[in-house]
Automatic annotation (TrEMBL):
A Pfam family hit: PIN
Location of the PIN domain: 44-164
Name listed for the protein in its UniProt record: PilT protein domain protein
Organism superkingdom: Bacteria
Amino acid sequence: MYFYTCYKIFVEFMVGKAAILANKKIIKNQVIFIFYKWGKNSQLDTNLFIYLIEKNRTYFPLVKSLFEKIQKGQLYGVTSSLVYTELLSKPFQEENIVLVNKYKVLLATFPNLIIKEVDKDIATLAAKLCAKYKIKTPDAIFIATGIAEKAQIFITNDTRLKIVNEISIIILDELLNQTDRVIID
């Protein structure tokens, strides 16, 4: 059953060769210029996984393209182990075991995705970020994880995090609104 679930999630991920996003066609082989411009290591916020698995109408084509690049090794994804807590809380609350399993399989099997445990160095750096920017602890942990893992960018949709200077913050909404940043093959 576990392998069938893995296969099913993989197939769901690969299906859907084109989509309409904000009146712009996003094709399967699109190049996301900004990700290449700023480096291959990308810290991923929890919302990207949600947009991918739940096929968010607005963000799915862009996030799918990003995860395809990670899957192929063209980019490398990094996230904190805290992603489990953030992803699984709501499905557990709603007793949605199917969604819980989708997230678990994605995190356990996705190639070129590093899930970093929160150690004392990351926790200390997160505390410094909380003190300096007055951001929430989970956000600080994600950012600290990216910094510790030498990620060049932190991809999120949380505009409040743009105040952080230690890593480049990429906001998905801003990517969608800047057509020069999304290149269509």
